[in-house]
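Hi everyone, sorry if this is the wrong subforum. Our group has a chain we'd like a structural model of before ordering constructs, and none of us has done structure prediction before. Sequence below.
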Amino acid sequence: MALNRYLYTKKTKNKKYETPTFSTFKRKATDMYVFSREGDRLDLLSQEFYGDPRYWWVIAEANHIGKGTFAVQPGLQLRIPKPIDNLMTELEEVEKDK
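Answer:
Right subforum, don't worry. Here is the predicted structure as C-alpha coordinates:
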Protein backbone atom coordinates (compact mmCIF):
# COMPACT_ATOMS: atom_id res chain seq x y z
CA MET A 1 0.00 0.00 0.00
CA ALA A 2 1.41 3.37 -1.04
CA LEU A 3 1.61 5.99 1.67
CA ASN A 4 3.62 8.31 -0.51
CA ARG A 5 1.75 10.18 -3.24
CA TYR A 6 5.07 10.77 -4.99
CA LEU A 7 5.68 7.04 -5.45
CA TYR A 8 4.80 7.28 -9.13
CA THR A 9 6.58 10.58 -9.83
CA LYS A 10 8.61 10.38 -13.03
CA LYS A 11 11.12 12.56 -14.82
CA THR A 12 10.03 13.90 -18.19
CA LYS A 13 12.30 14.07 -21.22
CA ASN A 14 13.30 17.64 -20.38
CA LYS A 15 14.42 16.41 -16.91
CA LYS A 16 11.59 18.05 -15.00
CA TYR A 17 9.61 16.09 -12.47
CA GLU A 18 6.05 15.22 -13.27
CA THR A 19 3.88 14.40 -10.28
CA PRO A 20 0.76 12.43 -11.11
CA THR A 21 -2.68 13.59 -10.10
CA PHE A 22 -5.15 10.91 -9.27
CA SER A 23 -8.48 11.62 -10.93
CA THR A 24 -9.43 7.98 -10.44
CA PHE A 25 -11.07 8.43 -7.04
CA LYS A 26 -14.42 7.03 -8.13
CA ARG A 27 -17.40 7.58 -5.90
CA LYS A 28 -18.39 4.49 -3.94
CA ALA A 29 -21.18 3.55 -1.59
CA THR A 30 -18.58 3.17 1.17
CA ASP A 31 -17.42 6.81 0.91
CA MET A 32 -18.18 9.09 3.85
CA TYR A 33 -19.40 12.67 3.56
CA VAL A 34 -18.69 15.19 6.29
CA PHE A 35 -18.86 18.96 6.69
CA SER A 36 -15.59 20.64 7.60
CA ARG A 37 -15.38 22.48 10.91
CA GLU A 38 -13.42 25.47 12.10
CA GLY A 39 -9.76 24.49 12.48
CA ASP A 40 -9.91 21.41 10.23
CA ARG A 41 -6.79 20.57 8.26
CA LEU A 42 -6.19 17.86 5.69
CA ASP A 43 -3.66 16.03 7.84
CA LEU A 44 -5.94 16.12 10.90
CA LEU A 45 -8.90 14.81 8.88
CA SER A 46 -6.69 12.05 7.52
CA GLN A 47 -5.68 11.09 11.05
CA GLU A 48 -9.32 11.10 12.15
CA PHE A 49 -10.70 8.98 9.30
CA TYR A 50 -7.71 6.85 8.24
CA GLY A 51 -5.65 6.70 11.42
CA ASP A 52 -2.65 8.17 9.61
CA PRO A 53 -1.97 11.84 8.74
CA ARG A 54 0.11 10.86 5.70
CA TYR A 55 -3.05 10.14 3.69
CA TRP A 56 -3.96 13.86 3.62
CA TRP A 57 -3.45 13.91 -0.14
CA VAL A 58 -6.27 11.38 -0.68
CA ILE A 59 -8.80 13.79 0.82
CA ALA A 60 -7.25 16.73 -1.07
CA GLU A 61 -7.38 14.94 -4.44
CA ALA A 62 -10.90 13.57 -3.90
CA ASN A 63 -12.20 17.07 -3.14
CA HIS A 64 -9.90 19.17 -5.37
CA ILE A 65 -8.60 21.22 -2.44
CA GLY A 66 -5.34 21.86 -0.65
CA LYS A 67 -3.23 23.75 -3.15
CA GLY A 68 -0.36 24.97 -0.99
CA THR A 69 -2.05 24.60 2.38
CA PHE A 70 -3.40 21.98 4.74
CA ALA A 71 -6.18 24.32 5.94
CA VAL A 72 -9.75 23.48 4.99
CA GLN A 73 -12.42 26.16 4.83
CA PRO A 74 -15.21 25.52 7.36
CA GLY A 75 -18.59 24.43 6.03
CA LEU A 76 -17.38 22.49 2.99
CA GLN A 77 -18.91 19.11 2.31
CA LEU A 78 -15.98 16.72 1.97
CA ARG A 79 -15.94 13.25 0.50
CA ILE A 80 -13.75 10.83 2.43
CA PRO A 81 -12.97 7.85 0.16
CA LYS A 82 -13.20 4.60 2.11
CA PRO A 83 -11.84 2.03 2.75
CA ILE A 84 -8.31 3.32 2.31
CA ASP A 85 -6.73 -0.14 1.82
CA ASN A 86 -8.81 -0.87 -1.27
CA LEU A 87 -8.23 2.61 -2.64
CA MET A 88 -4.45 2.35 -2.43
CA THR A 89 -4.50 -1.06 -4.12
CA GLU A 90 -6.63 0.34 -6.97
CA LEU A 91 -4.27 3.31 -7.44
CA GLU A 92 -1.24 1.04 -7.60
CA GLU A 93 -2.92 -1.09 -10.27
CA VAL A 94 -3.87 1.96 -12.35
CA GLU A 95 -0.33 3.33 -12.21
CA LYS A 96 1.22 -0.03 -13.15
CA ASP A 97 -1.01 -0.20 -16.23
CA LYS A 98 0.19 3.21 -17.51
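For your construct planning: The first helix runs from residue 42 to 50. The chain has a mean pLDDT of 80.
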